[in-house]
Amino acid sequence: TLHLLYSRFWNKFLNDIGAVPVSEPYRKRTSHGFILAANNEKMSKSRGNVVNPDSVVKMYGADTLRLYEMFIGPFDQHVSWDAHGIIGTRRFLERVYKLISKSQKPISKQIPNSKSQTEKLKRLERVLHQTIKKVTEDIESLRLNTAVISLMILLNEMEISEIGNSKFEISCKKTFLQLLAPFAPHIVEELWHVFGEKKSIHAQPWPK
User: Fold this and answer.
1) CA-CA distance, 105 to 160, in Å (whole number)?
2) Which one of 2-11, 76-85, 103-112, 145-154 scores highest in mean pLDDT?
3) In terms of Cα–Cα distance, which of 79, 190, 58, 99 is closest to 68?
4) Closest CA to 99 of 158, 147, 157
5) pLDDT-derived band of residue 115, with 50, 70 and 90 as boundaries?
6) Would you say residue 62 has pLDDT above 60?
7) Residue 201, CA distances (Å) to 52, 111, 195 in order
8) Closest Cα partner for 193 from 208, 206, 205, 204?
């Protein structure tokens, strides 16, 4: 509340004296919720229920902590910290690492010749495009938790497809990493170079 008061007060004052050209300091403002302790109490040093992020990073890695904070709940609502939940995001990233690491194998030139393989390809392509649309829109509207859920669904689809190391599958994996990059930038950067890429994944155009 005080940050909102001060930022608007000073901007309006500066506007009144002609120092800035606009009366409002920003076009849009979104309030975020609090992360509460496991028993739904407010975290504070006096209560001794504060989670030290340095300890979490040391145990699980920075990407896991970052991803969990996005996944834990809606951006604008209060949510409770769950130690078991962060283990879930860690396992998700381990699955990502395992799947992408397989891409170091030579690219398969085999074309799917069975009806079931063709259907898997079509379904994977459909889910891929749905995920691109969903994650793009969710990031713009700060629905970060549902964006992460969409990425988890796409990972499941890639795991069950088992269509070989084809050009399409490689393309799908690379797009998946680009979508995951804002949420887990460090592991994604490492995996991006598995495909022989020289430039950073964070310098790539956003998937369409």
Assistant:
1) 18
2) 145-154
3) 79
4) 158
5) confident
6) yes
7) 30, 28, 11
8) 204
What span, in angstroms and rounded, lies between the C-alpha atoms of 115 and 4?
59
What pTM does this model have? Answer: 0.84
In DSSP notation, 30-91 reads: ----PEEPTTSPPP-TTTT----HHHHHHHH-HHHHHHHHHHSS-TTS-EE--HHHHHHHHH
Alpha-carbon distances, residue 20 vs 15, 24, 26, 113, 132 (angstroms): 5, 10, 12, 66, 39
Q: How many whole angstroms separate alpha carbon 1 and alpha carbon 70?
A: 23
Integer Cα distance of 172 and 177 in angstroms:
9
Q: What is the pLDDT of residue 112?
A: 55
Rounded to 10 degrees, the C-alpha dihedral 126/69/101/205 comes to 60
Mean pLDDT of the chain: 89
Distance of CA 158 to the CA centre of its chain: 17
Q: How deeply is 48 buried, as exposed, middle or buried, from its count of CB atoms within 10 A (0-12, 13-18, 19+)?
A: exposed
Q: How many CB atoms lie within 10 A of CB 150?
A: 20
